[in-house]
Amino acid sequence: MDTSDLPAAVAEYLSENRTELFEFTETIVGYDTQNPPGRTVDIVEWVETTLEESALSVERFEVDPEKPNLIATLPGQTDRTLCFNGHLDTVPFDEGDWSYEPLGERDGERLYGRGTTDMKGAVAAMLQVALAYARTETEPPVTLQFAFVSDEETGGDAGLTTLLETTEFDPDACVVGETTSRNGRYSISVADRGNIWLTLEASGTAAHGSRPMIGENAIDRLTTAVEQLRNEFGQRELSVDSAMDEIIGESVDFYEPEAGAEATRTLYRYPTINLGIIEGGTAINTVPASACARVDIRLTAGVDTRDALSGIRNCLAGMDGIEITDISWTRGSYEPLGSPIVEASARAADHVVDDQVYRRSGTGGGDAKVLRHEGIPTVEFGFGTQTAHGTDEYTTTEALVRNAISYGTLPVLYEQFTSTDG
């Protein structure tokens, strides 16, 4: 691993204290922060205590005492601010399904537990980077912020939304420590997709199941509507901002080994439509008079969501007994290739891996989308495994070290690319 762009004292600290990094990860994973309920107050108190260094100022912000947020700040040589963001909550787990302890168990070079790769391992690396700069009295080239937040996994407003709405949180750039490596391929995520969530309701006419011809089957109407949505709206090529073309190209190259080039290209050039929930009927021998479906539609960043909604409505217009009763949506977002945070993150990843680092779009979206829509240049960047949200989730000691070295290097590279860009 190349540490040539790390300040010498920071490089030495990270090299000599790898055990500390692994212990941080085990400690953080040991806190049960499943969301729901998403209680993170105990882990926040531990992080707060760990960051008690004279060089660091630490503040807590909360609207829900059970879900506090923490910002640690280390002044730099300029007032330009680079933020590292990590969430402390995790998705739930069923202990009975696990072969390892869900709250942390080490087996050789693997650390198992809920959140190890999503994203408590990255949080541990951020903590160690903060301490490496603070304890060695190394002034970073830019001011560093470390924002540890709650309530990300359920999209709640007690986490990052609280910081944005109730504080002056406004860094010049942000790195979210989501794992962006998988199956031996490495990347940073510079874009995410928008989504439209629809509730479709179908009405029909009840009848006895032995005489379906005298009724109107609401489930049949509903599935017909979903198929029409797939076959008409789902087959319309999206009007994507040309700035996304190169990002889509690298995204296709990244996902091709597991999904195929054509399938991945379609993923970004056309809407994806998933029928997630369908409900209807009261008995097997009754023609159902009502039915309901919830549909998840995803759109590439740069697509006009209003045009997409209009296309959906036109597609379903005139269908008997079909009504859209609820719509929620978000816009996709992207950070242009060539921006300082994109190029600095890609270069930082190059320092710790020998293979290509792709600059790609994610298929979903999280806190990075929120930050970009607030005008904060943001990427997702972290090493881990493809086991996020899965049974026996784990990370590796190598991934943890890669995170610490690349995050420690980022302030230097970000300042270089910002100065060049300016």
UniProtKB/TrEMBL annotation:
Mind listing the GO molecular function terms for this protein?
Answer: hydrolase activity; metal ion binding
Where the record annotates domain Peptidase M20 dimerisation, the positions are 191-316
Q: Does the keyword Lipid metabolism apply?
A: no
Keyword annotations for this protein? Hydrolase, Metal-binding, Zinc
Q: Kindly list the cofactors needed.
A: Zn(2+)
Superkingdom assignment: Archaea
Q: Does the keyword Metal-binding apply?
A: yes
In its UniProt entry, what is this protein called? Answer: M20/M25/M40 family metallo-hydrolase
Species of the source: Halapricum hydrolyticum
